[in-house]
Amino acid sequence: MFADQAIALTDRPSLGLLNAVFGKAHTAALRGDHTTARQFLAEGRRVFDRASSHEPRR
Questions:
Q1: How would you write the chain as a 3-class SS string?
Q2: Tens digits of pLDDT across the chain (58 residues)
Q3: What pLDDT is recorded for position 21?
Q4: Which residue from 16, 20, 51, 55 has the least number of CB within 10 angstroms?
Q5: What is the dihedral of CA 18, 20, 21, 25, to 10 degrees?
């Protein structure tokens, strides 16, 4: 529930968004939903790449 609320706050890449997305990935994996876990993992990688980029944020 908290991760969903954090994700809904903004789509701007941040450490908070990254933690929320990876939290969802961990939860899905622990529940045995490996497909969803991989989807959140891929989204987390995209967020990480954008959040850690030295380019100006949009």
A1: CHHHHHHHHCCCCCHHHHHHHHHHHHHHHHCCCHHHHHHHHHHHHHHHHHHCCCCCCC
A2: 888 898 898 878 899 999 999 999 999 999 999 999 999 999 999 999 998 876 665 5
A3: 95
A4: 55
A5: 130
Tokens of 3: 């991760």
At position 51, the amino acid (one-letter code) is: A
Phi-psi region of 12 (alpha: psi -120 to 50; beta: other; left: phi over 0): beta
What gap in Å lies between CA 43 and CA 17, rounded to an integer?
Answer: 10
CA–CA gap between residue 31 and residue 12 (Å, rounded): 28
**pTM confidence score:** 0.81
